[in-house]
Design a protein that fits this description.
The structure is a homodimer.
Chain A: E1 10-15, H1 22-32, E2 39-45, E3 49-52, E4 58-61, E5 63-64, E6 73-76, H2 82-85, H3 89-98, E7 104-107, H4 111-117, E8 125-126, H5 133-139, E9 144-145, E10 151-154, E11 157-160, H6 165-177, H7 180-189, H8 202-206
Parallel strand pairs in A: 1-2, 1-6, 2-5, 6-7, 7-11, 8-9
Antiparallel strand pairs in A: 3-4, 10-11
Helix pairs in contact in A: 1-6, 4-5, 6-7
Chain lengths: 211, 211
């Protein structure tokens, strides 16, 4: 448990893109959003305005990331749109520079493939959605990819497994930045059965990544 | 297990309002959205266009519900905005008529208070978020409120407990409409640890509603 000193809320900047995965974004934001005194949510995209999710619903980005200083916490979601996003050399070059100013770089699901493609996970341990694990690995040959993990925390990088795993990672991050008790209180508030063990991962075996 | 015959996708209409709870909406939509051949998602609100969530992020409603035929599945989320919504007699009168045409009426969290206030749960068993249970009960004195329940399914009404419970209920609903195998495949796809038992509910005791 860390000492929980008063400070200004940390900014959490979500990098949205066409066909992002809904729960990758709104699972974590439900949890950060329960603590408005600690976290300030910013939705960022190439342009301010509507961004379509992989599931169809449209969300409004508050600001263009090109016009926004890097937040304290960068959150990169996954979703089928990542497959296109990693092919943009201009996006990757921008992210590689911009995101380095963050206190913490985080990703959900295939968002770790986006971080990896920008070189931001080189020399770090990381994980990804277990269905897209081989794709993620191909984005970052200098990353130490961990197959069996609900999430991986390595220094200032936090990467989660697929979709719903982002909620477990976010609670662990809240516990690390504030306290285990605060994270548990948030989980109880939203009636979420928090997996606290980062090695809990039945999905690695279900997808044939481990025995 | 029901026989899974081909048919047109069911429409799932989400009734949005100012300060709805993010995960109440996007947990279920992540799961319905994984099956676009079975479910078509519609975001509805008083007016088409932006609607602000309780946590801040803004979502775009596809259509005005006043201009939209009742969908196959009506989904009413919760959130702090329900406290204002139930005070609108015109909204309640509209919902009471419109929603009766649905095949299934569903709610997440304090959304059951909205259904109850419109008289749509009279004579039914139902549940709600455990922190707002007394508030929900006050909205529907002719409802049989169940304190210890992850969700309650009674005929054509499905009501879930708080926030994250909506995902467990949605998977149970997919299992009922299609098959248990399909619901399990969706849960695996999003790496979600599905609670299949509707009586699993540690939050009722944590909030002093049961011993």
């Amino acid at each position: 448990m860390t000492i929980d000193e008063p400070r200004a809320p940390r900014s959490v900047g979500v990098v949205l893109f066409d066909r992002f995965e809904l729960l990758d974004v709104f699972g974590p934001l439900e949890l950060f959003g329960a603590l408005p005194d600690r976290f300030e949510i910013l939705l960022l995209a190439e342009n301010a305005g509507p961004v379509r999710s992989a599931q169809g619903p449209i969300v409004v980005a508050d600001r263009s990331y090109g016009d926004t200083a890097c937040p304290d916490v960068v959150l990169v979601p996954g979703g089928i749109g990542t497959r296109t996003l990693v092919q943009s050399r201009s996006f990757g070059a921008w992210l590689a520079t911009w995101a380095l100013r963050a206190e913490l770089l985080t990703s959900i699901c295939t968002g770790s493939g986006v971080l990896a493609a920008a070189g931001l996970l080189d020399g770090y341990r990381a994980t990804c959605n277990k269905r897209a694990f081989h794709w993620a690995r191909a984005q970052g040959p200098r990353v130490e990819w961990i197959a069996r993990a609900r999430w991986v925390h390595d220094r200032d990088r936090w990467t989660s497994a697929g979709v719903a795993a982002g909620m477990d990672m976010t609670l662990a991050l809240i516990a690390r930045l504030h306290s285990e008790e605060l994270a548990a209180a948030v989980a109880d508030r939203v009636e979420y059965d928090w997996h606290r063990d980062p090695t809990w991962d039945p999905f690695a075996a279900k997808n044939g990544l481990v025995d």
